[in-house]
Design brief:
270 residues, mainly beta, Leucine-rich repeat, LRR (right-handed beta-alpha superhelix), 2 domains, elongated, LRR_dom_sf, repeat, Disease resistance R13L4/SHOC-2-like LRR domain-containing protein, LRR_R13L4/SHOC2-like
Length: 270
């Protein structure tokens, strides 16, 4: 393990770091002046963990990262200057966790992300410049958690999301999402759904999500569909049997009219 955490004046790593071929864990947390990683980083073929948390000056990753085929965890949280990920990211087929929270300059995810066949958790909280997710995300058959909360530029999800049959946690709260694809009804493993502060325009098929246990709503959640006479439909959704945890974040969910089960636990309600 090589720990260089909080080396705030470190602007570059020596090219010779590539000689550490047996290195398994590289910690660069809060190296806030680090501008880039050397191409030789790709020689660290034994690396299983790369932590670049709060490397605020890092704007890109080298293409040679494709050689880190044993990498299981890649932490890029709060890399606020990072605008893109290399297409070669898809070579990291052992990657299980990819954390991109607060990467506010990130403009896109590469299509190759669909090749991350072992990925279990993808965190994109507050990636405010991210406008879309690639269709290839539906190929992430092992993904259990997808978090796109506070991705204000994200207006919809790709229809391919319905292919993610192991997805158990989906957090959309505070995102710009207004429409959900019909394929969300195919998320047969979904247990937790967060839609607080989302302006949804369509009815949620909660009754088809047989394993759903937890629902987080509140804020600006509403249904904006209008009936033929011009009056807005006041019903947002029905809460079906099976949901045991229910959290309302504000007093603005006045349109909820019907709760079907007596087994709901209301957290935070007065």
């Amino acid at each position: 393990r090589l720990d260089l955490c909080v080396c705030k004046s470190l602007s570059a790593l020596p090219y010779s770091i590539g000689r550490l071929t047996l290195l398994e864990d590289l910690q660069l947390y809060k190296c806030t002046s680090l501008l880039a990683l050397p191409d030789s980083i790709g020689n660290l073929t034994g690396l299983t963990m790369l932590d670049l948390f709060v490397c605020k000056s890092l704007s890109a990753l080298p293409d040679s990262i494709k050689n880190l085929t044993r990498l299981e965890k890649l932490k890029l949280r709060s890399c606020t200057s990072l605008s893109a990920l290399p297409p070669s990211l898809g070579n990291l087929t052992r990657l299980k966790r990819l954390k991109l929270d607060y990467c506010r300059s990130l403009l896109a995810l590469p299509d190759s992300i669909g090749n991350l066949s072992q990925l279990e958790k993808l965190a994109l909280h507050e990636c405010t410049s991210l406008p879309t997710l690639p269709d290839s995300i539906g190929k992430l058959n092992r993904l259990g958690t997808l978090k796109v909360a506070s991705c204000s530029g994200l207006s919809t999800l790709p229809s391919s999301i319905g292919s993610m049959r192991r997805l158990s946690t989906l957090v959309l709260s505070g995102s710009g999402i207004e429409e959900l694809p019909d394929s969300v009804r195919l998320l047969e493993s979904l247990e937790w759904l967060g839609i607080a502060r989302c302006r949804l325009r369509s009815r949620l098929p909660l009754w088809e999500m047989k394993r759903l246990k937890g629902l987080v709503i509140g804020g600006e959640v509403n249904q904006k569909d209008e009936s033929d006479d011009g009056n807005q439909n006041n019903e947002l959704f029905e809460i079906p049997d099976g949901i045991t945890h229910y959290s309302q974040h504000s007093q603005e969910c006045r349109r909820i009219r019907y709760i079907e089960t007596s087994e709901v636990t209301f957290d935070g309600l007065e």
